[in-house]
Amino acid sequence: MSEFITPKKIIYGENSLALSGKYIAELGKKALIVTGKIVVTLDIFKQLTDMLDSEGIKYAVFTGITGEPTDTMINEGVEVYKKEDCDFLIGIGGGSPLDSMKAIGALVTGGGKISDYMGKVIETPLPPMAAIPTTAGTGSEATQFTVITDSEKDIKMLLKGTVLIPDIAVVDGELTKSSPKGITASTALDALTHAVEAYTSKKAQPLTDPYCISAVQKIFKYLPRAYKNGDDIEARNGLAIAALQAGICINNSSVTIVHGMSRPIGALFHVAHGTSNAMLLEKCMAFAVDGAYDKFAELGRAIGTAKASDDDKTAAEKFIAALGDICRICEIPTLEEYGIDKDKFFEVMDKMATDALASGSPSNTIKEVTKEDILDLYKSLW
Ligand SMILES: [Fe+2]
Fold it and tell me: How far is the CA of 192 from the centre of ligand 1 (A)?
């Protein structure tokens, strides 16, 4: 048996934000808008508040998500939610405000500390939530996951539960136009990682496969364009849909080894999520490829890098090479170029491998992954 879950309502395409008012009005009377300090200065934030005003929806604004979310930021958000007497949540911004919205919601109804929920399935229903992504990447608008850093233990906690899926996702490429070059690249490469991992995961299933293939095709087609020209609205729209599709893919078929190994790099060296995925993508998929030559080959043919006449092994290897190429087009740095201290990295590598395995993601990889394999892959990044 497989399960296929998505947000209750997805509003997408041109002018979605302005037209989402009547649906958002059904969620409650006063929203806590969860966001960061930059988004509130942008025109899209004014579009949101104008829409809420015209619908007569009250709101308070929490701008405390200043980077990838930590337990401390979440506690502050919960306090504001309670003090302002809110009854639903709107997350607007990149993956961080969206993930934070979910964690705030979980604590508002479930109580306790966010670290209490690690390793458990969150089941207490959350306040209603609307997710409005302004980057095309994490797919958080469509997923039952949130990733929050435990600042005491330096661990990125992956928390899950179907109650974390937003009621409404508003997806419009226009909203991502302010996303700078580097963020456009790292978020889209996060989405690419989602699609490739879900397609080749042990939990891959017939309903997610078409979304995965479509997301991979769109990202290869549109990311180089959006990276070169952020005003290319066709490319922005293509990436926004791809990120949503890829989010639906991981929601149902899971991420695998890249995400497992990426979170510890993010937690200990503060590399942005999409960038640490991209640093790992080609190497990890080259490791996994002999577990599923046929599936990697299909992706190679789908993006046109492999010919129909190529055998599966050749086509799969061409796809892996294309993964490396797109990361290089987007100027993804190596660990060394990023400025990470090699000695420090080797010192904590054992903890990183343990944390990666403990997250459970590597075990969804199509072939067995041992701690030794993970250590070898970390070493191969240098
Ligand atoms: Fe991700």
Answer: 9
- Do the strands 145-150 and 155-160 form a parallel or antiparallel pair, or are they unpaired? antiparallel
Closest CA to 183 of 342, 345, 39: 39
Nearest 5°: phi and psi at 58?
-80, 160
Beta bridge partners of 133: 93
pLDDT value of position 119: 82
Q: Are 105 and 126 in contact (CB under 8 A)?
A: yes
371 Cα–ligand 1 center, Å = 21
- Compute, in angstroms, the gap from residue 34 CA to the centroid of ligand 1: 20
* pLDDT for 153: 87
**For residue 84, how far is its CA from the centre of ligand 1 (angstroms)?**
32
Helical packing angle, 273-288 and 312-329, nearest 10°: 160
What is the distance between the alpha carbons of residues 128 and 355, in angstroms, rounded to a whole number? 32
What does the pLDDT read at residue 158? 87
CA–centroid distance, 55 to ligand 1, in Å, is 34
Query: Would you give the DSSP letter of residue 157?
Result: E
Q: Is 259 exposed, middle or buried (0-12, 13-18, 19+ CB in 10 A)?
A: buried
Q: Calculate how far, in angstroms, residue 51's C-alpha sits from the geometric centre of ligand 1.
A: 30
For the chain, the C-alpha Rg in angstroms (whole number) is 20
Residues 91/132, Cβ–Cβ less than 8 Å = yes
Contact (CB, 8 A) for 168 and 7? yes
Cα(83) to ligand 1 centroid in Å equals: 32
CA of 259 from ligand 1 middle (Å) equals 6
Distance CA 16, CA 152 (A): 40
Going from the Cα of 305 to the center of ligand 1, the distance in angstroms, rounded, reads 24
Consecutive sets of 10 residues in the chain, 382 residues long: mean pLDDT of each? 91 93 97 97 96 97 95 97 98 96 97 91 97 95 94 88 97 94 97 98 97 98 98 97 97 96 94 96 98 97 97 98 98 97 97 94 96 98 96
Pairing state between β 58-62 and 145-150: unpaired
Ligand 1 centre to CA of 58 (Å) is: 32
Distance 54 CA to ligand 1 centre (A): 35
Report the candidate in 134, 169, 185, 123 with the shortest Cα–Cα distance to residue 333. Answer: 185
User: What does pTM read for this prediction?
Assistant: 0.94
> For residue 20, how far is its CA from the centre of ligand 1 (angstroms)?
26
